[in-house]
Every structure is written in C-alpha cells, then in structure tokens.
Amino acid sequence: MPVLEKELGVQQVEQYIDGVFDKVKKRNPEETEFHQAVKEVLESLKPVLNKKPVYMEKGIVESIVEPERLITFRVPWIDENGNLQVNRGFRVQFNSAIGPYKGGLRFHPSVNASIIKFLGFEQIFKNSLTGQPIGAGKGGSDFDPKGKTDLEIMRFCQSFMTELSKHIGPDTDVPAGDIGVGAREIGYMFGQYKKMRSAYEAGVLTGKGIHYGGSLGRKEATGYGTVYFVNEMLKDNGASFNNSAVVVSGSGNVSIYAMEKAQELGAKIVACSDSSGYIYDPNGINLDTVKRLKELENQRISEYVKAHPLATFHDKFSEIWSIPCDIALPCATQNELDKEAADILVQNGVKAIGEGANMPCTQDAIEVLIDHRILFAPAKAANAGGVAVSALEMAQNSARLSWPLTEVDLKLQAIMKEIYRESKKASHEYDAAGNLVIGANIAGFVKVADAMISQGVI
Ligand code: NDP
C-alpha cells in the first residue's frame, strides 16, 4: 500500500476507534471497569482494522461492544432472623455469534452493571480463544456470602435462580461459578432450576458436583490452565517454573490450583493472600494447610501462621507484590496489581506475570511490564482454561457420559498450548511481535467478528 494511503488508513482507524469508545462512555456513564476493558480491546484491534477494514465497514466493532441483552432483577430472601433482604441480580448476554452465552456468576458486594459488563465483554474473546463453540455472558449479584449461614446461602441461591431460570438453558445461556460461587452454590442453583423446569437439563450450569453431571478437572481447570499457559510462554523464552520463586494473590479456586500446578512443576510459592492480607512463608506455602483453611473451614488466611510459625501475616492485601519473586500470578480480582506494584516487581527482578484473575493488572501496570520486556500472559488467554473445561463439561452432558480426569487434563493442556500458539501467531501477523495482549485480543476477535458478518445484521 502506498505510504500516504497507509497513513490515511491509520488515521481513519484512530478516528473510528475514538468514535466507538466515546459512544460506549456516553451510553454507559460511570461504568469505569467496563470502559477500561473496552478501551484495552479497542486499542489492540487497531492493527487488524488497518489490514481488514471490513470489520469497520460492517459495523462489527460498534456491535461487539453492545451487549445483546442485559437482565437485572430483584432477589428477595429471608435471613436467619426472619427479616426480608433484597439484593440485585444481573445477567449480561453479551454475544452469541459462536455459541450459547457462557460465563460465570459472581456473588460479591462490589457487583454492579459495570463489573458484570466488563466481565461479559472479556468473555467474548476468551471463549473464542478456547476454540470451543461458546458465546459470552456473565452474571451475579451484590449479595455478600461472607458470614451467611448455609441456609441463608441456599435461600438466596434459590431466589436468584427462580428469576434467572427464565433466561437460561443448555442451548441458550450456561452460567458457572466465579468469585463467591463454588460447588455449593452451583448445587443449590441447579436444584432450583431443575424444580422450576421439571426437567433434568444437566448442561444448564457448569462447575457441578461430580456426582450429578460435573466434569472431573473443572475445579482445577482455571488455575492449572493459567500455569500451563505461563509454562508455554516460559519454555518459548528458555525459562521454566522449576526452582523459581512464585507469588500468587488470592487463596480461592483459581489461586489454589495455580499454586498446586506451579509446585508440581518445581516452583516454590512464597506468598498468597485473601482480602484481609497476605502470608509470606520462606519455606514455601504449605498447600494442604491453605486447602484446609479455605476449602473446608472457611477461615481467614491469617490462621495459616498458627500452623507454620516461620510464616508471617501482613494485613495489606495489595503489598503482596513487594515480595521478591521470579513469577507473579495475580489470581484474586480486578485491578489488584497497579503501576506502583508493577514498578516494584520490575525492580525486584520479576521475569514473568500470568493473569489468573480477570483484568487483575491495571492498564498502566501492563505498560510498565511490557516496556520492561517482562513476559506477560494476559487474562483472556491465560485463564481461559476454566471456561474451556466448562465447555468440555457441556459436551459430556450432551453425550450423557463422563470422561476420565487424564482425558480432560490432556485436552486442557492441548487447549492452553493452542491458545498460546494462536495468540503469538496473531501478534506476529499484526506487527506486534510477542505482545500477547494484542495477539490474544485479535485472535479472539477475528473468529467472532467473522461469525457476526456471516449471520448478518441481527
Ligand atoms: P474465589 O471466590 O474462589 O476466590 C477469590 C480470592 O480472591 C479469595 O481469596 C478472595 O479473598 C480474594 N478476593 C476477592 N475479591 C477481592 C478483593 N476485592 N480484594 C482482595 N481480595 C479479593 O474466586 P475465584 O478464584 O473463582 O476467582 C478469582 C478470579 O479469577 C476472579 O477475577 C475471577 O473472575 C477469575 N476467574 C475465575 C474463574 C473460575 O473458574 N473460577 C475462571 C476465569 C477467571 P476473600 O476470601 O477474603 O474474599
């Protein structure tokens, strides 16, 4: 392409992207997390829009930032004192171009439309990257499960599902867990869905218990998948987990299984956290203790030091990134690793970062890491293992059979390898050599965009 024509093309793309982003901000005022997620994707799509203006001409970018449907609803429930409590429920059905809406449910007091939309939007690209036939959705409630009795959790889940059941189904929308939603909550919601429908539709939810349609390996999938992805990235750059010091934030589903797989690959986990603070254990975190405290006893992470006197507890969650490490895996929540933390990690000689949580690094943190050539595995690619195995759970439910753990794990490993390969390939194809943020976003986008064009204006 002649230089002038190319320049014009670049300007046009810039203007187009600015226009789409302005509209998103106007239409969704104050929704800062959603703006952040959209901005990151739009910026990284510039090279593909330059090469393939058809995505602008067909209005694909304007369409992809607008959810197909956003449902909000009242969730009334009665607490242990007989008082009425009212929460708000959400489900965003963001994009169904390549399959039924698919994405987790989050129960956390911070949940609002912005959080749900940012998560649902990211899910489009992540789900596409898995190579599985799944569209994108996300949901949840501002309900706080902390301190609630088991009966309160059950009543809340039932009330939530009474409304949600009108909008989901194995071929329309398939929710799963996320922060605050684990096997117990999925079980209560599945029971209520079954009652509402008078039918056993196993594929309506994923993350189910193994004894009623769940997949072996789903519980471990996001954490293991993150480590498989980071391992590919390390290997490709002549490094490995073996003998490395690793810091993992959080001590929930993703964190625990990321720690487990990293340890299996020879890493020493020196710190992990929960929302009350972090623990540092110079001997390496004892995962049996963390599992006991978090999976069985519902305790705070500070209890860990009682069993391991050499370990220390620090009550500032965000200061975990000041612990020197070779590899950092933020696996707790969005925007937990900011520029200041990234600067400290770089000063301390970090070599790689893998995002196990969704959008855990702020945009300026990512810029610092990329500027310093730190290997960076973005969430949409690195944590796609959870939803990938959810899709495998759906496949098993449709076929009415159950695969052995080794089969699921081998499939997960193959999927994570392929996501790494595709993201890297796209980064080279679109002149962003090695930048996996750009590569993953483009690779995820192209498949969905092409499907949207094929299906016409709907
Ligand atoms: P869990 O609820 O199992 O664990 C979350 C962990 O992060 C807990 O240790 C929690 O501490 C901590 N945490 C949560 N919110 C905050 C906060 N605002 N500040 C500090 N710490 C916090 O959730 P998951 O492990 O399932 O999810 C973690 C992340 O991974 C989320 O970003 C989620 O969207 C993402 N993810 C999860 C997938 C899955 O399959 N579960 C799939 C893909 C992404 P505390 O217990 O004190 O609240």
Description of the structure:
Helix content is 50%, strand content 14%. The protein is an alpha/beta fold. It folds into three domains: 10-65; 69-201, Rossmann fold, CATH 3.40.50; 220-382, NAD(P)-binding Rossmann-like Domain (Rossmann fold, 3-Layer(aba) Sandwich). The strands form two sheets. A seven-stranded mixed β-sheet has the order 9-8-7-6-10-11-12, with helices on both faces. A five-stranded mixed β-sheet has the order 1-2-4-3-5, sandwiched between helices. Bound molecules: NADPH dihydro-nicotinamide-adenine-dinucleotide phosphate. NADPH dihydro-nicotinamide-adenine-dinucleotide phosphate (NDP) binds at residues 177-180, 222, 250-255, 274-276, 317, 331-333, 356-358, 383, 386.
